[in-house]
């Protein structure tokens, strides 16, 4: 994971979406090992897997200038997870596309942080990267994340839902709901 002094990618009213720091590793590993946070993923992540994910996020930001940013609460400096953009690397009918995604620690749930951070990331996708649209997807039962997608103004066509190729056959979170958001005026 790159240590760059915590350069900021995006700033919102309450949050910093910034480059990853070495100090993020421990709280990120706890987040990824929390069964409630990881309920809609195939499994919790080990410390090694969590560290590798953080390194991939940091590398993407270093290479692209954007990616899944570490999220910090401005008032406290607390690391609460990540939010940002990525290019999914699996095969699916809706790809290629840029995905918006987030994962926050349970203590940060219920404060509107995911929507606030994702709104900033979507704005970056459209205003800075000039993308025509973005996608988001999650297990169909993940109503919390789907509510964030709804609040972002994303649309869902059940006909585009898909079986995630990286989730084993028969696993309860294999079926994913796909959401889209096109560039254009926001309400």
Automatic annotation (TrEMBL):
Chain ranges of the N-acetyltransferase domain? 15-174
Q: Which sequence ranges are marked TM in the entry?
A: none
Matching entries from Pfam families are given as:
Acetyltransf_3 (PF13302)
A molecular-function term among this protein's GO annotations: acyltransferase activity, transferring groups other than amino-acyl groups
Stored PANTHER family: GNAT FAMILY, PUTATIVE (AFU_ORTHOLOGUE AFUA_3G00765)-RELATED-RELATED, N-ACETYLTRANSFERASE DOMAIN-CONTAINING PROTEIN
Which named protein is this? GNAT family N-acetyltransferase
Organism of provenance: Yinghuangia soli
């Amino acid at each position: 994971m790159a240590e760059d002094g915590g350069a900021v990618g995006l700033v919102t009213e309450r949050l910093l979406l910034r480059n990853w720091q070495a100090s993020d590793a421990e709280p990120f590993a706890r987040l990824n090992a929390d069964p409630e946070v990881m309920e809609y993923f195939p499994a919790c992540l080990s410390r090694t897997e969590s560290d590798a994910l953080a390194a991939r996020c940091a590398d993407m930001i270093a290479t692209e200038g954007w990616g899944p940013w570490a999220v910090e609460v401005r008032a406290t400096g607390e690391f609460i997870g990540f939010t940002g953009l990525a290019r999914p690397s699996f095969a699916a009918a809706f790809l290629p596309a840029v995905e918006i995604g987030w994962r926050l620690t349970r203590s940060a749930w219920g404060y509107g942080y995911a929507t606030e951070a994702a709104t900033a990331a979507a704005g970056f996708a459209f205003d800075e990267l000039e993308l025509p649209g973005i996608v988001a997807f999650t297990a169909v039962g993940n109503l919390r994340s789907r509510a964030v997608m709804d609040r972002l103004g994303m649309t869902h066509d059940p006909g585009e839902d898909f079986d995630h190729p990286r989730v084993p056959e028969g696993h309860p979170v294999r079926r994913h709901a796909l959401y889209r958001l096109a560039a254009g005026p926001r309400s």
